[in-house]
């Protein structure tokens, strides 16, 4: 819906993990921002100077090691998620997607001679319940609850093939074949 502050609902387990990581990292950043804001606010009204706070190896070690530990709390879940996103399981269907300047071409590699082009529907031909700049004349049909492999490339310029609810975004580059998967 419009004016939502959160991410849209997930349609795959990996997107749920991405949303959890987003919330985890955001909580850490909010805590850091509140702490630094409180310390800066208190410095404006503090008249006293602590000479041990200005010069001391202990405090310098603390404000060097503490941010490193906080970064580890962000880095380890991020690395785990990156490896999960890149893991390729045994796919039940493989779809090849070729980006052209104004349309996409699709080929179901597991079946013989199933390929089609998908053009965007012009705004003046949309129905009342259609989505402007999103609806196409030929949609992809994929099975539910199956491992799907997507091979993405482009014929002319760089394109981006994405389904936000599944947590999938792949760039189609001419002369390069990129691969991703989703469930």
Automatic annotation (TrEMBL):
Gene Ontology BP annotations: ATP synthesis coupled electron transport
Membrane topology: Multi-pass membrane protein
Record key words, sorted: Copper, Electron transport, Magnesium, Membrane, Metal-binding, Mitochondrion, Mitochondrion inner membrane, Respiratory chain, Translocase, Transmembrane, Transmembrane helix, Transport
Segments traversing the membrane: 25-46, 58-83
Cofactor binding: number and manner: Binds a copper A center.
Cofactor(s), names only, from the UniProt record: Cu cation
Location within or outside the cell: Mitochondrion inner membrane
InterPro entries the record matches: CcO_II, CcO_II-like_C, Cupredoxin, Cyt_c_oxidase_su2_TM_dom, Cyt_c_oxidase_su2_TM_sf
SUPFAM superfamilies the UniProt entry points to: Cupredoxins, Cytochrome c oxidase subunit II-like, transmembrane region
Organism superkingdom: Eukaryota
Function in brief: Component of the cytochrome c oxidase, the last enzyme in the mitochondrial electron transport chain which drives oxidative phosphorylation. The respiratory chain contains 3 multisubunit complexes succinate dehydrogenase (complex II, CII), ubiquinol-cytochrome c oxidoreductase (cytochrome b-c1 complex, complex III, CIII) and cytochrome c oxidase (complex IV, CIV), that cooperate to transfer electrons derived from NADH and succinate to molecular oxygen, creating an electrochemical gradient over the inner membrane that drives transmembrane transport and the ATP synthase.
Name this polypeptide is given: Cytochrome c oxidase subunit 2
Species in which this protein is naturally found: Drosophila hydei (Fruit fly)
